[in-house]
Write a structure and sequence with these properties.
With 178 residues, the protein is α+β, with helices and mostly antiparallel strands. It is 37% helix and 29% strand. An eight-stranded antiparallel beta sheet has the order 3-4-5-6-10-9-8-7. It has a two-stranded antiparallel ribbon with strand order 1-2. A hairpin with a 5-residue loop joins β3 and β4. The longest helix has 19 residues.
Length: 178
């Protein structure tokens, strides 16, 4: 019995440690950074292909901005393709990185993430998800890596005034009827 307890404690501890290891970003850019910090980090890391202010847009809604980078012209050597950095109240809360499918494959990234961060908390044909208490990292098909500040994202979801569409409501009714 004592041995079973020790094994379960070890497995549970390993799971928690792996879950907390989920990264907050990539290439020197991390969730929670300010707009100016991200611009500096993008300039410092040529893999993103950041060209400066022309890559910056304002999004509809209050206090939202977006930086979009494209490596095809300015960083053809990079494993990255197009990337998006979404801000709310001057804080980065979503990083979306499309990876160049001619240079990298889904399995190599999936295998590396599993070795580094443990098995994903959920797997579907569309995406694999790793989570901890504040960050959700997903590897999505065909080849996109996404980091989300879950607290900010959830807060914005709650503030959203968009009601479900008729299609979404009927879909939910259908699924509930199964």
């Amino acid at each position: 019995m004592k041995r079973l307890f020790l094994i379960l404690t070890f497995v549970f501890t390993a799971f928690i440690l792996n879950a907390e290891d989920v990264p907050k970003g990539y290439g020197g850019v991390e969730l929670g950074m300010s707009f100016d910090q991200v611009k500096k980090a993008l300039k410092d890391n040529l893999d993103f292909g950041y060209r400066g202010e022309r890559d910056v847009s304002l999004l509809p809604g209050e206090n939202r901005a977006l930086i979009e980078t494209d490596t095809t012209t300015y960083a053809g050597f990079s494993f990255l393709d197009r990337c998006w950095f979404q801000f709310y109240n001057d804080k980065l809360y979503v990083i979306t990185i499309n990876i160049n499918r001619e240079k990298m494959d889904h399995f190599s990234i999936f295998d590396t993430l599993c070795k580094k961060y443990g098995n994903p908390v959920s797997v579907s044909p569309e995406k694999s998800v790793w989570k901890n208490s504040s960050v959700t990292m997903s590897l999505e098909r065909p080849l996109t890596l996404k980091y989300v500040d879950q607290k900010t994202f959830d807060s914005l979801q709650k503030k959203s005034l968009v009601s479900p569409s008729g299609t979404e409501m009927t879909r939910d009714m259908f699924l509930k009827g199964l």
